[in-house]
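Anyone? Bumping this.
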Amino acid sequence: MGAVALTEPQGPAVVLPVFQGPLDLLLYLVRENRVSIWDIPVATICDQYQAWLRAMEQLDLAVAGEYLVCAAWLLAIKSRMLLPRREKGEADPRAELVERLLAYERVKRQAAELAGLLALREGVWPVQVSLGEEKSQGDVALEDVDVAALARAMREVMEHFRREHPPGLVLPPMRHTVQEKMQELLAFLTEERSFPLLSHMLTRPDRLEAVTCFLAALELVWLRAARVHQRLPFAEIYLTPTGYSPVLEASTHA
Amino acid sequence: MPDLELLAAACEAILAVAGEPVSEAALVKALGSDVTEADVREALNLVQSRHEAAGSGLRLEKVAGGYRLTTKPELSEFVASFLGLRAQTRLSQAALETLAIVAYRQPVTLPEINFLRGVNSSAVVRTLLERKLIKVAGRKQVVGTPLLYRTTKEFLVLLGLQSLAELPSLEELGETEAAVGS
Amino acid sequence: MPDLELLAAACEAILAVAGEPVSEAALVKALGSDVTEADVREALNLVQSRHEAAGSGLRLEKVAGGYRLTTKPELSEFVASFLGLRAQTRLSQAALETLAIVAYRQPVTLPEINFLRGVNSSAVVRTLLERKLIKVAGRKQVVGTPLLYRTTKEFLVLLGLQSLAELPSLEELGETEAAVGS
């Protein structure tokens, strides 16, 4: 458990303990109340726990889901404590709570022990003199190779590969219907008496649109709404209006 | 028997480039066929005594089943001042707790760590993996076959331990469980 | 004037962790306000003379940009022997990457490995074959019928896995962008 100083723009700084989790908070409450861990007054601790949660929420500290799960657990224990025990041998409803708090207390002591060892080691740096030019970099001792190292290496391969092979620019294909194209062409035809179909097709951004356009033109010819002319093979194809304007179904395509 | 001074110099040179603890066996192998373990130990003694002089900035250390050269702790102020921001980074409380669980209960799974700490510790585990203080050591044969974690040699080096057996037991700390909350 | 022996020790400690040449000015700065360039030069002289003893494996070298500690050239045979032996118990980054590709994409061919890594990996593949971490497992029925590689039993033992099915996905180890922040 550490502490965080919350400096509010108005008012004095609030110093609030920072808990490593619900078990840490519970241990803190047990100590604050100077009660035995073997005989926790669950009702009191449960109320104080919830008061802490509210305080943490008000201060906008992220209250992780684990805190809420633990709150529900405490409530369950509290309610079971209110029921009379049916048999002599029935387990104390607090048994698991005590067990987990003791186990966590142990972890904290062990962590403090490691911190102590680390503090002793502070200010000691390994010597690594250069060999001149060559330096074995990124070597791993075989005994240190684990799946995490393997996965890290794989990620590096994939990232390198992605950098070397950037994805090409992909434009989503436009969707066109023959119906739409027919309306479009009819509009062109009423405006310009002679419409250069081939040029129009060749300048479409994607082939699908060009094909749709050609089908639309054929459809208009078949409906006798247009005529086609081509003077020479491979020369421009002109579309001209016949004066007849077919009633096209309204396009349902958005 | 080979020249002891030469052996001491060779040991020092090897340790200085190794950058990690080197076992006695590795030194013996590197120094040639006519060198014994006893020779190496004597040479290392010479290295150690030479560094005890006030004018030396280094010391010989026995850690993680091997030997390595480090700077003297009493010079840390100067070295830290030189390294500036490159100084050691401390471990967070969450990292210490998680590391303690792995160290004392290994091999251990993430669900077990989460249960003991009462909070999800996957991010902390990932940090410890990245710092190479813990490593994956197979899977537990239970539902979901979670990965098992163990501490590394790097962990021993960081804490200055010869082996895991040197981890202080809680009995030495004078812990009595009934003392909690009193 | 400050204690010369202490200054010499501090200079040596700094040079021993620097890993690159250190200028006189940087040493002066690290050693504190009451230390002059002349002090540092005198301290470095002391370091140098101490390393001239036969029992020392290091020497102080003046190079472009400052001073650095290196191993004595006459000991290079031992150092090279040590590094050569150690290399046999280590995997280079290239080897680790290739092993990862074989592990995650097996069975895989050399052209496929080369394509993924962007460099020719035949030497690395040979090393992994020699170390028995990968093996040949038939030929791919494409042009040139290249050899297919798979990981071995030794590979599983190294990673503490019972079977390849236990190899964690990259997602499981939090090694993909998708898992970041989870």
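Late reply, but here is one note on the structure posted above: Residues 175-182 of chain B have pLDDT under 50 and may be disordered.
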